[in-house]
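About this split. The held-out portion is used to measure sequence recovery: a designer receives only the structure tokens and must propose an amino acid at every position. Recovery is the fraction of positions where the proposal matches the reference. Here is one held-out target exactly as it appears in the evaluation file.
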């Protein structure tokens, strides 16, 4: 009986020893999923650099790895890129959220793959104004000749105190003939009236009146003389000067002429000279044209009225046609009268007395 009990205890001790050894061996061996039995090495996680349009870089937060084999998902990093505009202002677009991808594993943890953030294309504000067009003023061009159609009648009066020495009422123009490449042409300048810058000056004597009509471009000079013997008044001297671009080939030309041995615009003392159209040639291709001309010097009784007109030869009435017509009519009348008398005499001779 004692022998059987000792065997039972020995077997129980051996079984307990085997179980204890097996338990110790089980504790000393690592799990099959963690082979080989060594400490985990922390993997190197690159920090992706995100470039923003405002010139600064921001690093996302690294992923935290735990020793239990799991990887904690980091909080998403919100990048707010700043968009810079060309006008100097900065506009803040909507934030872009990056969601890094994390793989779970027992051994290896991969770093999060940075998500390509889409940055809104910056809106370009075209604030650059176009440069102002600086127009260089062209050099002033000389005035062009006034057309003949713009002739206006000017009233030019020379006074000495309350006395009127000379009056001229006319549309005046200076006409110059010139040649360009053997082609004859002419330019005209219309003399302005007193309302448009002209001025009358001169002096008055008993038998001479010096009449000066001046304007910006030149002058016209008339010397009225009285002939007591003939009891007439005329212009014995005339001169002019003009600085005006009448010739396109020579715009700076100066035209001048003078004649001291003429007898123009003759009229009786106390009368006025009248002519609808008259042209005076002064030499060098220069003409002085008068239209609707009326002038008088000396013995002006009424300052507002000209004396009786003495017409120029072109305006004097031509009686030659009237005289010719009258002569023809007289001849016809004579012929008719003679024919009547002859016919009557024949009838009288045909009757005989009984």
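Reference sequence for scoring:
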């Amino acid at each position: 009986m004692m022998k059987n009990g000792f065997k039972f205890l020995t077997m129980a001790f051996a079984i307990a020893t085997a179980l204890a050894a097996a338990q110790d061996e089980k504790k000393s061996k690592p799990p099959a999923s963690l082979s080989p039995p060594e400490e985990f090495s922390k993997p190197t996680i690159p920090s992706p650099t995100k470039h923003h349009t405002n010139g600064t870089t921001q690093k996302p937060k690294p992923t935290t790895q735990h020793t239990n084999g799991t990887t904690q998902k980091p909080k998403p990093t919100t990048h707010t890129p700043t968009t810079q505009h060309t006008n100097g202002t900065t506009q803040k677009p909507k934030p872009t959220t990056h969601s890094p991808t994390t793989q779970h594993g027992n051994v290896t943890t991969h770093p999060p793959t940075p998500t390509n953030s889409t940055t809104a294309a910056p809106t370009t504000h075209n604030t650059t104004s176009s440069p102002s067009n600086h127009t260089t003023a062209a050099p002033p061009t000389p005035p062009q000749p006034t057309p003949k159609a713009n002739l206006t009648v000017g009233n030019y009066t020379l006074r000495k105190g309350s006395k009127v020495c000379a009056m001229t009422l006319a549309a005046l123009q200076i006409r110059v003939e010139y040649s360009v490449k053997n082609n004859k042409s002419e330019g005209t300048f219309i003399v302005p009236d007193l309302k448009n810058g002209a001025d009358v000056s001169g002096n008055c004597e008993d038998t001479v009146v010096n009449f000066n009509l001046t304007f910006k471009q030149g002058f016209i000079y008339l010397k009225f003389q009285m002939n007591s013997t003939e009891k007439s008044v005329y212009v014995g001297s005339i001169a002019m000067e003009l600085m005006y671009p009448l010739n396109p080939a020579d715009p700076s030309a100066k035209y001048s002429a003078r004649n001291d041995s003429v007898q123009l615009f003759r009229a009786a003392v106390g009368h006025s000279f009248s002519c609808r159209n008259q042209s005076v040639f002064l030499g060098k291709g220069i003409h002085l044209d008068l239209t609707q001309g009326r002038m008088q010097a000396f013995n002006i009784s009424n300052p507002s009225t000209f004396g009786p007109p003495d017409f120029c030869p072109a305006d004097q009435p031509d009686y030659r046609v009237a005289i010719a017509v009258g002569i023809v009519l007289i001849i016809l009348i004579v012929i008719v009268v003679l024919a009547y008398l002859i016919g009557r005499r024949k009838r009288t001779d045909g009757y005989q007395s009984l």
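Annotator remark: Residues 152-311 form a domain with the Porin fold (CATH 2.40.160.110).
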